[in-house]
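Teaching assistant's notes for section 4

Start the section by putting this record on the projector. Ask students to predict, before seeing the second block, whether Glycosyltransferase 87 family protein will look compact or extended. Collect guesses on the board.
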Amino acid sequence: MSAAHADVLPRSDGSEPDGPAGPDPDEPIAAPGREDRFIGGLAESIGGSLGDHAVRRPRKIFTPVRIVLVLAMLTFGLHWLQKYPCQDAAWSNWSQYRYFCYTDVVALYYAEGLDQGKRPYFDHKVEYPVLTGALMGVIGLPVHNYAVTHPNTINEIIWFYNGTAFVLFGFGLASVAVALALRRRRPWDAAMIATAPALIVTATVNWDLFAIGLTALFMLAWARKHPWVAGLLLGLATAAKFYPLFLAGPLLILALRTKRWKEALITVLVGGFTWLAVNAPIFLYAREGWNEFWRLSDERGIDWGTLWYIGAHFPAGVEKYGIEPFTTLGGNIDLLNKVYQGLFFLCCLAIGALALLVKRRPRFAQLAFLVIAVFLLTSKVWSQQFGIWLIPLAVLARPKWGAFLAWQAAELIYFFSFYGELLTVSGKHIFQEWVFVFAASCRWITLAVLVGLVVRDILRPQNDLVRRTYDDDPDGGPFDGAPDWPVLEKLRFWERRRETPADPGPELPAAATA
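Reveal the predicted structure now:
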């Protein structure tokens, strides 16, 4: 047992965790049916969970890693079939909504001028961060050039979609592979990512899997104690989608808690320089195109499905919708920006205080999940595919199936109701507004519950399945096994009061006590 953590939790099988030497190659992997009541209940239908004295035969072909990777490929295959009706862009009578197959990858091939050979940012403004725009151009411009030089030989939009999907599926598989690498004793946790229902329906709605894969690789590099590589990947991920920037916060908070600043500062600074290096050419030579992402982010109003939309469209009577202050904020974008950004900032302060003051240091993945989750819960924009940002983080933070699947079910309900809402506003009435508000509320509430469960695991680390398997924090890199900065212990005054024995008062003579 690690000397730095005298309160290290036992594994789920009752044995002691391994030390720095790592796991025994003959050690059995964690069995979800024995530690997860939801999976254990399902296992009863096929004979029950693994027994205490069961003998595991060595697997040569059907190893957990291979099974999980095959499941991930099947998930992406199902997604490709689900989007197949929309690949040729021959959308008529709102077929992209009726078949639930709309994707920005197809729509923006035309909207961003790629079908005319326009270079992203230089010849046409792009509403995405620089690296995503570059990916669009790297795939789209050669496809268009080939279509021009070889007329009537290919359908360029189908080629563009499938080329983009192939790259995005690669980054999606990378995120699953990273989860397997970070959880070698818990490979079945990665099956939660590989089979996530939201991934089946939204994987290529936009280019988000690009940033998700880069973010996963950043976490792997950090866990393997390569701060320079981690910084490079963090900068690239932020240049593809802005949300990975928020992961710098948990790094710095944990660096403060452990007083291990060097690696964290290297990662954050290298990430910042990488982001600047990627953005500088576009900023200098295509300033107007570069500004488009920031302009739209600032001027965009309340988006469908957000907390602010729910409040602005909440049923308030017969054919009446909206409650204050949400209705007022909907008409004042500047005030809305200040309110949601302020609320997110306060939530980050609360997460930071939790990380510093709780008795046992939280794991990096737990804090990373909390920060990105509260960003979505408070943001004015929550597109249908944004939920897949959280899938790898949620699994690394809390690998329990019950609440995870409840949240994923809510994501599916929202997905289908979202297309019903699109048809309704397009003139084909599907349902009343309260149905969509209900679906959006289910998504918001189930994610908020998952946030609460992760917070509970931080407050009660004995409930944390990852710490039942590992010594401390397999994702923590330099923080793994690090002792706390002693100064922080002085801030936990309530623990000192509880641990200090009551004063028995002056000792009385034996005669008096008699």
